[in-house]
Write a structure and sequence with these properties.
single chain; 424 residues; alpha/beta; DNAb Helicase, Chain A; Rossmann fold; 2 domains; 17 helices
């Protein structure tokens, strides 16, 4: 940097995004900050100007005076190997950071402060963050961007009429959205008892059982046994209440046996621990994904997760964490959410502003799907229940609505041929 200021300082800024902290020697940290500051001000950089800057800041003697600076300039034959020297500095910094992360984890383990899941998540975060600041962020050239666009055109043409994302089992929804895409955060929102969990588990069942693709489910409200019980009844098309009351017929046991066998063979993985923070859930999801190579993750539901600060701050943190998790794992993540009571009070279709407790959900989500039930004239729930699936947000795609029917007794959604009448 002292030999070839313009080229080498710019190269150093680009390759060392963490700045002066990558240097072990405090004298080198001070020199690095000084040279970067002089470069930003477009000032002349040579031994004399550097000496004057250090004198003005009363740092010259602390650094070692001019003999030390002159000695630095004689340490390398030329500035031609600057990139090689940068790699050495970066490598040593990463090794020191790894030592720090391991030492901190060992200390946490011995002190045993907090839950084990929290310690594991903190250790994962520390280690993953070491290299995150040094990932290549060079801007792609225009030719490579054009080639990517051409590849996308060719792929779309070759798969004309086919669903390119992960199919949900609901035809019109898949045709409009193209299926669920990697890295997407999909929010399914409704008021209580409308069928959010049922729809999410219908999608999970289609992907895991019918398509044999690994699916992870975080059930913060229901136990895993309850979910599988409902899924078995849904798949066998048996009234779950009748099954619970022991009113099954002989023919029902045959269909239930077939359904349970199919579910048992499916790559479906359920975590039923309640009260998780976004940090704890992310740590468990990363391990689940590493072990099973998930294609879809379902979280039921957002408002049951824990966080710090006000409820608004908690929901904001959770929403951002889920979106980050989807991008990190490279899979679609479905998260369920409650809607505000205003929808019922005003007897209207839900809007994005009705997403409960935070605007961050609306902002972070790539896709939002509302479930709006059609009630009878006396206000009672029907079975099957006509439900309007409303897609008010779809980042980079079309929006619209999807007529559905919710068979409440078997907790199953199916596509409807016609839309329900609009409620008054």
């Amino acid at each position: 940097m002292l030999l070839e200021p313009k080229e080498c300082i710019d190269l150093s800024i680009e390759n060392l995004p963490r700045g002066a902290e990558v240097f072990y020697d405090l004298r080198h940290q001070a020199l690095f900050d000084l040279l970067v500051e002089m470069r930003e001000r477009n000032e002349l950089i040579d031994p004399i100007s550097v000496r004057q800057y250090l004198l003005d800041r009363n740092q010259l003697e602390a650094i070692g005076g001019m003999p030390y600076i002159a000695g630095l300039m004689n340490c390398v034959p030329s500035a031609a190997n600057a990139q090689y020297y940068l790699d050495i500095v970066r490598e040593k910094y990463m090794l020191r950071s790894l030592i720090h992360a391991c030492t901190r984890t060992i200390s946490s383990v011995y002190e045993h402060q907090g839950e084990v899941d929290t310690i594991l998540s903190d250790a994962e975060r520390l280690i993953l963050s070491i290299g995150s600041g040094f990932q290549s962020d060079a801007d792609p050239d225009i030719k490579s961007l054009v080639q990517m666009a051409i590849t996308e055109f060719e792929s779309a043409h070759g798969n004309q009429g086919k669903i390119r994302g992960l199919e949900t089992g609901f035809g019109k929804f898949d045709r409009v959205t193209g299926g669920l895409r990697a890295g997407q955060m999909i929010v399914i929102a409704a008021r209580p008892s409308v069928g959010k969990t049922s729809l999410a588990m219908n999608i999970a069942e289609h992907v895991a059982v019918d398509r044999n693709q690994p699916v992870g489910v975080f059930s913060l409200e229901m136990t895993g046994a309850e979910l599988i019980y409902r899924m078995a009844c849904s798949r066998a098309r048996i009234d779950s209440e009748r099954a619970r009351d022991g009113e099954l017929q002989e023919r029902d046991f045959s269909t239930l046996a077939t359904a349970t066998q199919q579910i048992a063979k499916a790559p479906l993985f359920i975590c039923e621990k309640s009260g998780l923070s976004i940090m704890q859930l992310s740590a468990r999801a990363r391990r689940m994904h590493k072990r099973h190579k998930l294609k879809l993750l379902v979280i039921d539901y957002l408002q049951l997760m824990q966080g710090k600060g006000s409820r608004y701050e908690q929901i904001t943190e959770i929403s951002m964490g889920v979106k980050t998790l989807a991008k990190e794992l490279g899979i679609p993540v479905i998260i369920l959410s409650q809607l505000s009571r205003e929808v019922e009070k005003e007897d209207r279709e839900p809007r994005l502003s009705d997403l409960r407790e935070s605007g961050a959900i609306e902002q972070d989500a790539d896709m939002v799907l509302f479930l709006h039930p059609h009630k009878s004239k006396d206000g009672t729930m029907l079975d099957p229940q006509p439900v309007k699936g409303i897609l008010p947000k779809h980042r980079g795609g079309r929006v619209g609505f999807f007529p559905l029917e919710f068979f409440r007794s078997i907790t199953r959604f199916e596509s409807a041929w016609t839309a329900p009448e609009e409620p008054k």
